[in-house]
């Protein structure tokens, strides 16, 4: 079903789909939607009704729950409940918080069903410069594209930040974008109902939502991408076939006349614009982008949006990207490092796990550390990270050593007797779980995939 929807959408860019509601209510769609909701870590977090996925499986049963939900959606009696607000600290130790909106399990299932149907349609329209919350795409692809164009003369950077993007998107502007592809009024009514569902704050107050799409919902990233695709289309319009930057020859001709060329790389609401030109060209783009975002109800943050040269460096998606001279030579390259804020954030998590007064079993502590450090290393292992991995490994090792020493009240002699193996090597292990050495992770260069990123729904049929 998804492959056909994507193929039809790609074949006719102006097509509006008028009969999608039956796909959303299809029992097979709801089963897949529930499976995805149940497989997510958020399945253990309840919404305003207090029910988790486990509660539904034990108290109601999945078949009965899905039958009742399908009947409510089909007869029009389904109404999304307000999302439960939860504030979590932003990474990096800034002291700021991010607001999440946690829907009920029933709402999550319907949102997942809507996403299954709508995503292949809108993926046909999304440009390749967008990477966030899209199938087969990842943050490393966005960073690799910056590296690719940075080495080819795009050295001025508009490092942009949209102020409270998920909370400020205009509902009428977003729904206009959805209506351009979806003509089914029942599906449009469901999407609008989720936008207007409201928020139950941590203090128990009910707030209406006149703008924005709450972070935490399954449908929210797709809706944000639909809205922000306006920005992609506007900035990349000259790159389209026949445009004034559509070929390398045209781009070279523009630069020979003192004009600029540019490229946007966007990951959800985080984006940068790389410019092959001057600071003045980049400042002009900043004003142009601000005007493009205004009809969406969005604005660039004056404090966080800046124009920088790549030799100064900038942070993007946890990485610090900088054009600098290679040590011991006169050649300059674009390097990708781990941003200090990302290191501070992971150290804070490590401290929380390895506190000296921690009462958790050592095997549990080692398991949590392994999960944290493996995930962190897999994300950053394509950067210039070997030195950072070694320093962080030493930091974690000593945290564990001090925790074990304090827990058992051992002297250093006792500690060595327990943790040094007969071959003279240190080893921290418990319950068959051994300490994961971060400095053992192999650092490799990420391969730039460009336009070779696979499509989950190929548009060509095979015989």
Automatic annotation (TrEMBL):
A GO molecular-function descriptor: RNA-directed DNA polymerase activity
One Pfam family linked to the record: RVT_1
Keyword terms of this UniProt record: Nucleotidyltransferase, RNA-directed DNA polymerase, Transferase
Domain called Reverse transcriptase: residue spans: 69-321
Designated name of the protein: Group II intron reverse transcriptase/maturase
Lineage start: Bacteria, Bacillati, Actinomycetota, Actinomycetes, Micromonosporales
């Amino acid at each position: 079903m998804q492959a056909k929807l994507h193929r039809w959408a790609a074949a006719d860019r102006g097509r509006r789909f008028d009969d999608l509601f039956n796909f959303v209510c299809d029992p097979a769609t709801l089963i897949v939607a529930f499976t995805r909701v149940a497989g997510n870590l958020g399945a253990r977090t309840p919404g305003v009704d207090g029910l988790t996925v486990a509660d539904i499986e034990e108290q109601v049963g999945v078949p009965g729950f899905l039958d009742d939900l399908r009947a409510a959606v089909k007869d029009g009696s389904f109404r999304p409940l307000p999302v439960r607000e939860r504030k979590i600290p932003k990474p990096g130790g800034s002291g700021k918080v991010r607001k999440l909106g946690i829907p009920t399990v029933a709402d999550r299932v319907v949102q997942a069903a809507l996403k299954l149907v709508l995503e292949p349609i809108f993926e046909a329209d999304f440009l390749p410069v967008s990477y966030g919350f899209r199938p087969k795409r990842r943050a490393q692809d966005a960073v690799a594209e910056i590296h690719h164009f940075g080495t080819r003369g795009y050295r001025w950077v508009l490092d942009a930040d949209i102020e409270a993007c998920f909370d400020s998107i205009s509902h009428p502007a977003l729904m206009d974008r959805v209506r351009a592809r979806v003509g089914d009024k029942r599906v449009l009514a469901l999407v609008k109902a989720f936008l207007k569902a409201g928020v139950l704050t941590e203090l128990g107050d009910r707030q209406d939502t006149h703008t924005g799409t709450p972070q935490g919902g399954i449908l929210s990233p797709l809706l944000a991408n639909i809205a922000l695709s306006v920005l992609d289309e506007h900035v990349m319009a000259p790159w389209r076939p026949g445009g004034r930057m559509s070929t390398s020859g045209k781009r070279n001709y523009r630069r020979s006349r003192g004009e600029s060329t540019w490229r946007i790389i966007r990951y959800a609401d985080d984006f940068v614009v790389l410019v092959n030109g001057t600071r003045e060209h980049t400042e002009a783009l900043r004003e142009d982008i601000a005007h493009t975002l205004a009809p969406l109800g969005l604005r660039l943050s004056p404090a966080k949006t800046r124009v920088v040269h790549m030799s100064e460096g900038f942070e993007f998606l946890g990485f610090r990207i900088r054009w600098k001279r290679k040590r011991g030579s006169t050649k300059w390259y674009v390097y990708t490092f781990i941003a200090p804020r990302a290191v501070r954030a992971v150290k804070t998590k490590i401290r929380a796990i390895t506190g000296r007064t921690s009462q958790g079993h050592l095997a549990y502590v080692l398991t949590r550390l392994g999960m944290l450090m493996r995930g962190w290393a897999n994300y950053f292992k394509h950067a210039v990270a070997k030195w950072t991995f070694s320093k962080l490994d030493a930091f974690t090792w000593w945290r564990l050593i001090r925790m074990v020493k304090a827990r058992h009240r051992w002297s250093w002699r006792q500690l060595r007797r327990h943790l040094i193996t007969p071959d003279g090597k240190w080893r921290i292990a418990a319950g068959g779980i051994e300490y994961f050495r971060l400095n053992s992770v192999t650092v490799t260069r990420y391969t730039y995939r460009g336009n070779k990123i696979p499509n989950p729904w190929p548009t060509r049929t095979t015989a």
